[in-house]
Amino acid sequence: MFSYLEASRLLCVSPEFKDLSLIVRSLSIDTRTLSPGDLFVAFKGEKCDGHDFLATAFEKGASGALIDTRQKKAIFEGLCVAKVPIHNLIPVPDPQAAMTALAAEYRKTLPVKVIGVTGSVGKTTTKEFLFYLLRKKYSVLATAGNLNNHLGVPIMLSRLEPSHQYGVLEMGASHPGEIRALVEMAIPSGGILTPIGAAHLEGFGSLENVYNTKLELADFLRKNDPLVVPESDARLLEKLGQRSRKAITVGYSERAEYRIADVKSEGGEVAFSLNDKGRFSFPGQASFLALNAGLAIAMARSLGLAWEEIPRKWEDVGFALGRFRETILPNGVRVIDDSYNANPVSFEGALAAFRSLSCAGKKIVVFADMLELGAGEERFHSELGEKIATSGADLALAYGKRTQASIEALENSKTGCVARHFKDSPEALVALKEVLRPGDLVLFKGSRSMHMEKVLDGIRNISFSSQT
């Protein structure tokens, strides 16, 4: 990344225990993933204080650490007691702000073109699709894991190298102004807006603020920088028009510049046509992800990929855990794990794909609260129940106080879907085990902190008697 001499000049502070023979390899805030040569950033978070892990960081080969000036004396004493090799301790008023400053300055030195990906749903999958396409021709770095916020983006920027031609960076936000801060740091020269909807309303305050925040990416781009958006979002297109901002549109309408057609989910893959240029396919059952694939193709084309350079069969594209991933358990139960997160827009897409799937047994939806929806959470959960009622589900099991409204709406729909509500995940698991049989298809979906994986893990190894 750069030398400690450069780092000290940028931060206007001289390191303690100086060793200028070492360099900053990249930034790290987690000793579990720290690599030798990383600069460890110690700051107090919601759950733990990074200063408590300094000894571990140096044991694992950290070349230095950003520490809070106010804790310098206690840190020195603690590290001396720990008897670990100490290098380049840099005391600053705010380690997190110093990390951001270092990453921003380093980004300015690189010729790499950054493509920002933001929106309410589908950011990670779209990022993975674009990464898959671009790396066929270029040297590319893409966001790893969930490093998409004010802490993750600086880390990803620090991992860029002069040899990279593109960086595909996912950008998440839960409050107004957060995308602006990320783009000012990352300096993107292209952007994709995935579908925008009611997500993190508790932090944004309104859907209007969600739109305006996501559009901070578009506002940063220069006039001729490519911006790819869904054609179906009239509100988004209106706001872009008010900004006199041109965009490349992708969708199912004939008005879309990149028109998706004939989407089919069968044989373990999703196939679709695009602009009569042939059929493209990717693994899985999530037909709604055809839009995300189209967004990625449109951006790849704008960055120079010819149609013949875009693979027709995307066999080795990467998918993150918990994103509509289907598995057949050893006991014969089919599960679709879409439990990474949930909001009204993502739930609607998941239910549409779920509706199109057939199975030998029952179709079951196991779901939990959608969080951070603000004052409209009861309405959103009630509407969710109405959507589940039309999803073809035979049984719906829910837990969490907010999904009570979903179950009530589902019961009032009188569609024949059996609906049950539980206090917590252990109760839901017990009920699921009682009704589950080989051949059943189960969709799991809920907000990340509802820990739906506990229910899913609880049915992985259950066995059925020959009589069931």
Q: Could you say which structural class the secondary elements and strand pairing correspond to? A: alpha/beta
Distance between the termini: 60 Å
- Largest beta sheet, briefly? 9 strands, mixed
- Tell me the domain tally: 3
Going by CATH, what is the homologous superfamily of the largest domain?
Answer: Mur-like, catalytic domain
Query: What Rg do the Cα atoms give?
Result: 24 Å
Shape summary = globular
Count the DSSP helices.
16
Task: Detail the poorly predicted runs.
Answer: none
Question: Which architecture name of the largest domain does CATH use?
Answer: 3-Layer(aba) Sandwich
Helix content: 25-40%
| Average pLDDT score | 94
Reading side by side through the largest sheet, how are the strands ordered? 8-9-7-10-11-12-13-14-15
Strand element count: 21
CATH class of the largest domain: Alpha Beta
Q: Indicate the proportion of strand residues.
A: 15-25%
Any overview of this molecule?
There is one protein chain. The chain is of the alpha/beta class and 468 residues long. The protein folds into three domains: 2-93, Udp-n-acetylmuramoylalanyl-d-glutamate--2,6- Diaminopimelate Ligase, Chain: A, domain 1 (3-Layer(aba) Sandwich), CATH 3.40.1390.10; 110-309, UDP-N-acetylmuramoyl-L-alanine:D-glutamate ligase (3-Layer(aba) Sandwich); 325-459, Mur ligase, C-terminal domain (Protein-Tyrosine Phosphatase, Chain A). The chain is 35% helix and 20% strand. It contains 16 helices and 21 strands. The protein has helices spanning 4-11, 54-59, 72-82, 95-108, 123-134, 152-159, 178-186, 201-204, 207-220, 234-242, 290-302, 344-356, 377-389, 404-413, 425-435, 453-459, and strands at 2-3, 23-24, 27-28, 39-41, 64-68, 89-92, 113-118, 140-142, 166-170, 188-193, 227-230, 248-251, 258-266, 269-274, 279-283, 325-328, 334-337, 363-368, 395-399, 418-422, 441-445. The chain has a nine-stranded mixed beta sheet, with helices on both faces. The longest helix is centred in the first third of the chain and has 14 residues, at 95-108. The termini are far apart. The model has no long low-confidence stretch (mean pLDDT 94).
